[in-house]
Amino acid sequence: MSAFYGSSIRSSWWLWSRLSWFFLYSNMVTALRTQKEVPISYDFLHDTAGFNLGESAIAFTCTDPIHRAMLVGLLNTFKVSITGIALATLLGTFIGVMRLSTNFLVSKIAWAYINVFRNIPPLLLLIFWYRAVFLKLPRVQEAIVFFDPVFPIYIANRGLFFPWGTPTESWSTYRWILLAGFVLAVFVAYRLRQHGKRTGRMPLVSLWFAVILLVVTLLGYVILPDPLEITKPALKGFNIRGGATLSLEFWGLLFVLVIYAAAYIAEAVRAGILSVDRGQREAARALGFSSFNIMRLIILPQAIRVVVPPLISYAIGFTKNTSLGLAIGYTDFFAITGGLILNNTGRAVETLTIILLVYLTISLIASLILNMYNRRIMLSH
Amino acid sequence: MNRNSAPARTEDPIIICRDVQKWFGKYHALKGISMEVMPQEVIVIFGPSGSGKSTFIRTINRLEAHQSGQIIVDGIELTHDVRNIERVRMETGMVFQQFNLFPHLTVMQNITYAPMYNRKWHRSKAEKVAMELLERVGIPEQAEKYPAQLSGGQQQRVAIARALAMQPKMMLFDEPTSALDPEMIKEVLDVMIELAQSGMTMIVITHEMGFARAVADRLFFFDEGLVVESGTPDELFNFPKEERSKQFLAQILSH
């Protein structure tokens, strides 16, 4: 009886979903046929954009073509996603470890953090933080300044201002020094790995890599006559000039998506560490390992197998959530294509198809890369 | 002493425990345990579950911290000093009931990691010693396998080899055969008997009384966080003095 009932629900659902798909499709075709003057065409991509964009990683003016505006949006999406996923992983790991602390207060703070941020819709979080905190930052004239005068960072309701270097004549030489330093660091890291495999004790390869890069970077900077001209932000009239700026929208979006994703990542990290049996730590301690080496050699390699699969979905989710930037006016790919371009050209089907395909491609590539990584660590079991 | 190769024991005790006490919250797990173990001595501890025998053996390498009393291992007193704890752990091998092999490492890596990272041995030396130990416990052909591919008895023998690779001065065994199927118990006990006869100082928690009879120098009967009775196997098996020991021995020797 119940099996029959269940299957009839399933088949009617199947029928209804097919019917509604058909309805939507025929609706679209009819609508397009009646508007004879605008058949589906992607030629508009070569038209001039006609709008300016404040937030852009590449040069862009209103006379550039529309497809270049899309590229600007895509780069803005990547800018938030890549920095955000890295920061959320760090913060999430930190909070996940805090959650496991034996200290009552530390563990409860992490618990509260996770449960507050995980249980509020991200759009609400975003609008709340943007309106209640970021927009209420002081005006530029009264900006909050840190590390003045060595490395002045200005925080105001127009964004975050910080010192930045512009290339000078010796920059082209300095570039080669940086490249040489990178090659050297890769070489040393490779040799260290080989040495580690031979002797059995793996040195902290990534630490050495970072140290060599840093030393070469600093040495080159000292030897050459100022390859970069550092300009510091300073208040001039009604604005802050010099240095570089992160827009309020960028770091507002970044901040909210990071704290949101970190809550999920913290739970994944906690689950990963808890999945490693207590006896593993005890056996390692009994053999005289230091607590640092217990983490590095015994606990983390086992925990990471459990952490990586959910981390893959959170990374993809993060990338898709950047489209919420529309709500606070961050010009990411969705805001530019589905907002500005769609409104200016009226090409709904074309722009939305492009948006769909682009997000699908990004997500598929991201999951492909992370699944390859996942397979590698699973294989080494 | 049934060991002809053992030199005359004139040294000081290698493990000294004086009035060791331990609480878990309000629960008084160890109510003042005192014990001195001479080098090359084999001690067997037995008693009902919850008697504190496992907690006691774990205080000797400080997997559990004792709260009062004194524990001196190989001349080093165990306190909160982390360096002292790590020194004691390098001299004290431990074998667990659940084996606790590292599942992400091969048998060879399980054995070589500790001497390579903690004794700073070169890999070639560590692997040579590991192969010798695998020969000794009878499974040299399993070196490149992962723990999950081995039987319980084989895993426990790897765990013994892993502990021995650090060349410890003494070995602690926490019910090493309790998680094993009956047919695998003998292969592990044989390794332990060979180890005892080679002159290793050992503290073993076990209810394998055949093993105790064969190699133990002294037996300790634990109950409710106290040593109820101790003595040679002959004294305890044939002439137990305390009523509690008589009851318990009657139960475990009856079958």
Structural overview:
The complex is a heterodimer of chains A (381) and B (255). Helices cover 67% and strands 8% of the residues of chain A. Chain A has eleven helices and eight strands. In chain A, the strands form three sheets. A four-stranded antiparallel sheet of chain A has the order 1-2-3-8. In chain A, strands 4-5 form a two-stranded antiparallel sheet. Chain A has a two-stranded antiparallel ribbon with strand order 6-7. In chain A, strand 1 and strand 2 form a beta hairpin. In chain A, helix 9 runs antiparallel to helix 11 (348-379). Chain A starts with a helix and ends with a helix. With 255 residues, chain B is α/β, with parallel strands linked by helices. Chain B has helices at 53-60, 82-91, 107-118, 123-136, 152-165, 182-197, 209-215, 233-238, 243-253; strands at residues 15-24, 27-37, 42-46, 68-73, 76-77, 92-95, 170-174, 201-205, 218-223, 226-231. In chain B, strands 6-7-8-3-9-10 form a six-stranded mixed sheet, sandwiched between helices. In chain B, strands 2-1-4-5 form a four-stranded antiparallel sheet, covered by helices on one side. The two termini of chain B are 28 Å apart. The A-B interface holds A 197-201, 277, 279-280, 282-290, 293, 297-298, 301-302, 380-381 and B 61, 63, 86-87, 89-90, 92-94, 96, 98, 100-104, 112-114, 116-118, 120-123, 126-127, 146, 159, 162-163, 166.
Q: Helices, strands, pairings?
A:
The complex is a heterodimer of chains A (381) and B (255).
Chain A: H1 2-34, H2 66-99, H3 104-118, H4 122-134, E1 144-146, E2 153-156, E3 159-162, E4 164-167, H5 171-199, H6 205-223, E5 228-231, E6 234-236, E7 239-241, E8 244-247, H7 248-275, H8 278-286, H9 291-321, H10 333-345, H11 348-379
Antiparallel strand pairs in A: 1-2, 2-3, 3-8, 4-5, 6-7
Helix pairs in contact in A: 2-3, 2-7, 2-9, 2-10, 3-7, 4-7, 5-6, 7-9, 8-9, 9-11, 10-11
Chain B: E1 15-24, E2 27-37, E3 42-46, H1 53-60, E4 68-73, E5 76-77, H2 82-91, E6 92-95, H3 107-118, H4 123-136, H5 152-165, E7 170-174, H6 182-197, E8 201-205, H7 209-215, E9 218-223, E10 226-231, H8 233-238, H9 243-253
Parallel strand pairs in B: 3-8, 3-9, 6-7, 7-8
Antiparallel strand pairs in B: 1-2, 1-4, 4-5, 9-10
Helix pairs in contact in B: 3-4, 3-5, 4-5, 5-6
